Amino acid sequence: MFTRVKSAVASLMGGIMAGASGGENAGGSDLPPKFPYTRPEFLGLSPDEVECSADHVVRPILILKESDRLPWATGYAEVINAGKSTLNEDQACCHVMTLHRRPRAPSTPSRTPSSRRRSSLPNGEGLGPRESAESEGLMFHYWALFDGHAGSGAAVVASKLLQHHIALQLQEVQEILLNSSILPPTCQGEEPNNHHAGVSQRALTRAASLRGAAGAPGSPCTPAPRFFTEKKVHHESLVIGAIENAFKDMDLRIEKEKATYNISGGCTALSVMFLLGKLYVANAGDSRAIIVRKGEVIPMSTEFTPESERQRLQFLGYMQPHLLGNEFTHLEFPRRVQRKEVGKRVLYRDHTMNGWAYKTVDEDDLKFPLIYGEGKKARVMATIGVTRGLGDHDLKVHDSNIYIKPFLSCCPEVKVYNLTEFEHGTDDVLVMGTDGLWDVLSNQEVAEAVTCFLGNCDPDDQRRYTMAAQDLVMKARGELKERGWRIVNERLGSGDDISVYIIPLFYGNQQP
């Protein structure tokens, strides 16, 4: 136990423990990488430029060379960390994708298992054989940031493939999405039921309705109408569900392909998709997105950390105590409980509580807390500081066989912003950034910096958004001085990898 405590304290000082150096072969794997390490394709960097970008002392800020490489004149800038990991573990990608209509399915419903459907996903090269040249269907714009930890492998793989998983999920429902006047049918292949219940249906008693249910004892051949109307599911919910399932498919794919490829570590994922007039912002991790509209800040994501997800993690530990390996307690205390306090009453809280209460300390309370630390130093099982993301299937507590993955969710939170409800000006933008930005700058500071910079630029200059992204990264990185990287007012600058998109919303209003 003493070794466990020493290791936990070390992790609070240095982030993720075993394998956190950023080496791509930290686990000693001789397997080839799924994809080679590189910087975002849209930067168009040569191998020499990629090598120069990895200077941890100079920390050059990389920006988009040609504004037409990204849609909507999107701006992008990035910088490597100050020595936290060997490589820049952030990854970024951006695509405009078209979902082609599928050939009409046969009358017999397909019973292809989902695992086989996923296996048709190409190796990061478009939609492959799943596409049909019959006619074009939906088009969507996609931007994404991935912040890797314990290596860049998972972040690189997710940047190459997540958009294709989203596309495959959307293909399943694209015919429904294209018919916006009719609600999605409860069962595919059936005519959607959009009528409302009549007076006679509403007048049915619950008991009579249940007696008339198909299969109930004594029920007539023709079931009586239900006592409730069919729940309405809107098209927006289908898109959200497609994104959520795509994240789960991506996580499952990383897990399966680790048997064949060296896919190191895990990553947080933040993606933005523009589809049918709406922005869908999906976040799994601690990156962040905000909309700046006429100077107002509209948060579009929530960070998932050990503190923000305390109750979910504690509940899982409470329901499945074997996951704690008899080394951790799901209870939280303001500090480590000491042996001399056994029998005394100390403050605690569990998964049912937001407030605090006192309990009598027993032997089990001497175990290490499932969640320990505060703020950016909070860790799950003294190991990892984020609670949602992709990968991390092999991550264990230091010097043990306790897996941490059961506590890490790959499911994103998806927030929706309807672009068509507003007329956006040229200074209205969506800012996406990895945590290296938000660790040192607040939402308001970012909004003010972007608004001020764009206000001094020619509105017709399409490079203004990349220059604004560069300015933002520079403000977060700061300048190297005797006491390290410093930003305004001599505050400590970000020593982490920083990646930033600035997406002008004005162009979204012009999309068909």
From TrEMBL:
GO terms for cellular component: mitochondrion. It holds the Pfam family PP2C. Gene3D superfamilies: PPM-type phosphatase domain (3.60.40.10). Residues 99-132 are annotated as: Disordered. GO terms for molecular function: [pyruvate dehydrogenase (acetyl-transferring)]-phosphatase activity. InterPro entries: PP2C (IPR015655), PPM-type-like_dom_sf (IPR036457), PPM-type_phosphatase-like_dom (IPR001932). Residues 115-505 form the PPM-type phosphatase domain. It comes from the Eukaryota. This is PPM-type phosphatase domain-containing protein. It comes from Denticeps clupeoides (denticle herring). The gene is PPM1H.
